[in-house]
C-alpha cells in the first residue's frame, strides 16, 4: 500500500535533499539551503499523488525553485538532475558533470549520515 512506501520515500527524500545541499556547497552555489529545499520538494508529487505542476501552483515558491523542480533548469535544476542520476546509478550521464566522482560519493554519504 501507499503507506508502506512512505518511510522509504521519506528516507530517500532526506538523503536527496542533503546531497543536493552538499553539491551546492561544493560548486560554490550562493544558497545551499535552496538546493536542500529543491531536494525536499522533489518528491512532493509522489507523497501527495498529484502532478508537480498543480502542487507548485498552490504554493508560492521562487521562480528558480519552480524551474528546477519542473524542468531541472538552472543551477538548482542541474544539481537536482545530477543527484537523481547518481541515485539511479546513471553513472555514464555523470561523467561530464562538473563534479568529481569523489564529490558525488561524499555528498551521497553525507546524506546517508
Tell me what the structure shows.
The chain has 113 residues and is mostly helical. Helix content is 76%, strand content 0%. The chain contains eight helices and no strands. The chain has helices at residues 2-26, 32-41, 44-48, 52-58, 63-71, 74-87, 91-94, 101-112. Helix 1 (2-26) packs across helix 6, helix 2 (32-41) crosses helix 6 and helix 5 (63-71) packs parallel to helix 6. The longest helix has 25 residues, at 2-26. It starts with a helix and ends with a helix. The model has no long low-confidence stretch (mean pLDDT 93).
Helix count, DSSP H or I runs of 4 or more residues? 8
Radius of gyration: 14 Å
The helix-and-strand class reads: mainly alpha
- In percent, how helical is the residue content? over 70%
Order of helices and strands: HHHHHHHH
Total strands: 0
What form results from the Cα inertia axes?
A: globular
Distance between the termini: 28 Å
Largest sheet: none
User: Segments where pLDDT lies below 50 for 5+ residues?
Assistant: none
Q: How would you state the average pLDDT, rounded?
A: 93
- Beta-sheet strand percentage? under 5%
Amino acid at each position: 500500500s501507499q503507506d508502506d512506501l512512505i518511510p522509504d520515500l521519506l528516507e530517500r527524500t532526506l538523503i536527496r535533499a542533503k546531497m543536493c545541499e552538499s553539491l551546492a556547497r561544493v560548486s560554490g552555489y550562493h544558497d545551499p539551503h535552496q538546493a536542500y529545499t529543491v531536494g525536499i520538494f522533489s518528491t512532493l508529487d509522489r507523497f501527495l499523488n498529484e502532478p508537480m505542476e498543480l502542487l507548485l501552483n498552490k504554493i508560492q515558491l521562487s521562480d528558480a525553485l519552480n524551474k528546477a523542480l519542473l524542468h531541472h533548469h538552472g543551477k538548482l535544476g542541474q544539481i537536482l538532475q545530477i543527484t537523481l542520476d547518481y541515485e539511479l546509478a546513471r553513472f555514464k550521464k555523470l561523467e561530464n558533470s562538473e563534479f568529481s566522482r569523489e564529490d558525488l560519493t561524499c555528498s551521497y554519504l553525507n546524506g546517508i549520515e
